Amino acid sequence: MYQFIARRLLSTIPVLVIVAVLVFLLLRLTPGDPAAILAGDAASTQQIEEIRETLGLDRPLPVQFAIWVGQLLQGDLGESYYYKVRVTELIAQRLEPTMSLAALTIVIAILVAVPLGVVAAWRFGGWFDRFLMGFSVFGFSVPVFVLGYLLVWLASLKLGWFPVQGYKPIANGFGPFLHHLVLPAITLSVIYIALLARVTRASVLEALGEDYIRTARAKGLAESRVLISHALANAAVPIVTIIGIGIALLIGGVVVTESVYAIPGLGRLTVDAVLSRDFPTIQGVILFFSFIYVVVNLLVDLSYVFLDPRIRY
Amino acid sequence: MTVKRPLARLAVAAAFAATFATLGVPAAQAETTLIVVPHSNLAILDPIWTTAYMSRNHGYMIYDTLFGTDENNKIQPQMVDKWTVSKDQKVYDFTLRSGLAFHDGAPVTGEDVVASLERWGKRDALGVALMTFVDKIEATGPNAFRITLKEPCGFVLEALGKPSSNVPFIMPKRVAETDPKTQITDYTGSGPYIFVKDEFKPGDKAVYVKNTKYVPRKEKPSGTAGGKNVYVDKVVWNLALRDYQAQINALQKGEIDILESVPFQHYATVVKDKNLQVRKPKIGLQYMCRFNHLLKPFDNVKVRRAVLASFRQEPFLKAQVGVKELYHTCPSMFTCGTPYASTAGSDIMTKGSMKKARQLLKESGYDGTTVVIMKPTDLASIDKLPEVAAQFMRQMGMKVDLQAMDWQTLVSRRAKKDPVDKGGWNMFCTAWTAPDIWNPINNAALQARGTKSPWFGWPDDPKLEALRGEFAKATDPAKKKKLAEQVQAEAFAIATHAPLGEYTQPAAARKNVHGWITSGLAHTYWNISKK
């Protein structure tokens, strides 16, 4: 087990190295000059050149790469060209909104999708099952920004229940924090509810056809216990896998929701950094995302041991 | 049961609504906090280091200026109390108002002014031009300074009171002594607001609190001049809210007080809302398409003039702005409604026609070279101009390659002087705020020193440069006006660029916001109250 964890942690190093090299090269191949952007619209070519020199962008690519890697080895992601702030500080500032949004989204998705999927599998072929499948298609199909605008129009502008935008840190109180986060989380959770409900339904349906379920029913167990303790418990591995992938995707994929609801999170930071060609920030954020992916996948793999005693590392 | 269930549902719904409605009360927002959504993100806090308008607006919050520009575009004293000019017009003596102090309590001195002007004079285009005339700038007393010129200069006060980037903001000497190529990190100013550095979160918010020790001028506020009275305790710039629809929603719901830039497509919505007020600046912005004078086919003046003859301003404005009351045609290269605007030389556009354009193109010897027009896809304020330009040019008989890219790519690529197949370009379109183009000196598109011209496109015309030089030295207003006309006539003759008409960018505020100055010169936040 410990060897497995150590091996997996060590395997993150080549992954991060490959990501670092690719991101660095791709950014340099992308058209766009950070110096021209920083200088402003009315700046002269001379001013742009001066800024390029200041940022070290006039140096050969291998030299720039070596400097960046040198900083990385010291745990330093560099300084944002645009904001003149350490990238680690920027990520730290933006982490809470994104993590909060992702966490609440996953909680909502699990609380809604898993029961729906179980009931749909239990009532396979019935109207509820068909309704859930229809909802899943809707959930996959509707763009997040369309859903966001619709919910804002209804729940904020018409009903006045929620603010239309913004984020309140949890330090300002749990009430305002939740109040600002509910609508974005619902918006973002729809696609995950659709995905998770389908996977839950399929897994539970498969489990319901197993011999042990027939045995459980034969010995007179309540249907709810059959469903939860036997069917759902045995269907947990694929469901947890999807939840894990969902968490990783959410952290990197909240861009649209953060834009629609003006949440100053990592997604918004990434978009700003890309638009302003803020190389150190883009590199830092992508490396951070990659690390999160690897760690979440590791945690998911480890959870299998607890969910299925047959699995051993 | 049948009775109880609906009641129970109703009770649950009511409880839910009440819970969230209570949570939604913006109790934390004090009445004296003004929440503003600026037109862009604030990243760079040194308004001398960059020409970005957001940095300029940040500068107006925390710094003061020696002179300002009023709503009639006239230069008025601001930090300066009085000044004299010698008979030979080579020595300017200035005395500062009494009571001027920086946020740390230190008085503003002549030495602070000298250091600030010297730093600005190394960055700003007009500042650099002014410094070519300057023999020395010196402090002549605790609250006085002198500018001595080598020869008379016609734009000393215009430069010191220029309203747009880079504005000569006055900083403490210790700050102004920072290398002009390095950004400052100390944001001590003497302006009406104090920047709260600890609360600044890039991409999220910038916070300014009232400078209670600021002594405003007695005159009525006007443009960037007059009394900078502050009636709110705090101004918060919401930098995270950048989705257009979300901005409008937030304004309508009262979560923000001011929206600096209302997108044209939402203009009608804002106008109809009785809780909102729409503000249209007195002077507008000018659209233009710029030729690259270094490359074929626009290295040929006849081709450039043919393009001017083919362009009609109305279709550009209609396609880009769409709202009739927000745009107007303008035959001038200097913003219409400002002192140097005229029709001189504009016949090529105002009396042009497609027939004439085709004739001119034929006479030019155009060889069918494909014209690369750069089209920004992510800048809604100018993204349709290249398409209209391409259509006119195709109708005239030119081959056009409309290349889509994001604005930042365009900004980088337009600095390239290379041939098209090595990343160069032939044309791009942009917009300028009025103060940036309203005279022959600061209008970057009129610089004609070939590859030595600091702005992109690089026209080369000694006659135009000579006329600009004469304008710079002229001190008589009538002579300056005449020279500006000659400059414009020559610019049209060589077709430096194509002016495409003007528009005003509407702003909006809640009805309870009073006193907001929307001159079109810059976005400023003094004189505002919430009632």
Please state the average pLDDT score of chain A: 88
Pair of chains with the largest interface and how many residues each contributes: A-B, 59 and 55 residues
Q: How would you spell out the order of helices and strands of chain A? A: HHHHHHHHHHHHHH
Kindly report how far apart the N and C termini of chain B lie.
51 Å
Query: What is the count of β-strands of chain B?
Result: 23
How many β-strand stretches of chain A?
0
CATH topology assignment of the largest domain in chain B = D-Maltodextrin-Binding Protein, domain 2
Main sheet record of chain B: 7 strands, mixed
How is the largest sheet of chain B built, in terms of strand order? Answer: 10-11-12-1-13-21-14
What is the helix tally of chain B? 17
Characterization of the model:
The complex is a heterodimer of chains A (313) and B (531). Chain A has 313 residues and is an all-alpha fold. Chain A folds into two domains: 15-73, no CATH class; 89-307, MetI-like (MetI-like fold, Orthogonal Bundle), CATH 1.10.3720. Chain A has 14 helices and no strands. The mean pLDDT of chain A is 88. With 531 residues, chain B is an alpha+beta fold. Chain B has two domains: 33-247 and 508-530, D-Maltodextrin-Binding Protein, domain 2; 285-503, Dipeptide-binding Protein, Domain 3 (Dipeptide-binding Protein, domain 3). Chain B is built from 17 helices and 23 strands. In chain B, the strands form six sheets. Chain B has a seven-stranded mixed beta sheet. In chain B, helix 9 runs antiparallel to helix 12. The longest helix of chain B has 20 residues, at 4-23. The termini of chain B are far apart. Classes of the chains: A mainly alpha (313), B alpha+beta (531). At the A-B interface, helix 2, helix 3, helix 5, helix 7 and helix 8 of A face helix 1, helix 7 and helix 14 of B.
